[in-house]
């Protein structure tokens, strides 16, 4: 299992969700992706993307500047 971090701080909606989806496509099933964002909409968009595309949202954390999301790629 690989773990990757995607730093999307400074990007505005819809770019964090679009770039997260693109990054997940390059991963193997079960790989983990940490996404760092400053866009407040990501708190809604990233969990929605996971539900829509069949990925697992393992953790969400508020950070000093935004959010950190830990995702596991689905099948």
According to CATH, what is the topology?
A: Translation Initiation Factor IF3
Shape: globular
Please list the strands of the largest sheet in the order they lie side by side. Answer: 1-2-4-3
Span between termini = 13 Å
Instruction: Determine and state the CATH class.
Output: Alpha Beta
Helical region count?
2
Q: Please summarize the sheet with the most strands.
A: 4 strands, mixed
Nearest-integer average pLDDT: 97
Structural class: alpha+beta
| CATH architecture annotation | 2-Layer Sandwich
Can you count the beta strands? 4
What's the helix-strand series?
EHEHEE
Rg calculated over all Cα atoms: 11 Å
Ranges with pLDDT <50 over ≥5 residues?
none
CATH homology superfamily name: TusA-like domain
| Beta content | 25-35%
Number of individual domains: 1
Helix content: 25-40%
């Amino acid at each position: 299992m690989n773990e990757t971090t995607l730093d999307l701080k400074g990007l505005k909606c819809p770019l964090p969700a679009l770039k997260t989806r693109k990054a997940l496509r390059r991963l193997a099933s079960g790989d983990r992706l940490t996404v760092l964002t400053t866009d407040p909409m990501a708190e809604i968009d990233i969990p929605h993307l996971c539900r829509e595309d069949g990925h697992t949202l393992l953790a969400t954390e508020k950070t000093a500047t935004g959010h950190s999301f830990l995702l596991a790629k689905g099948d």
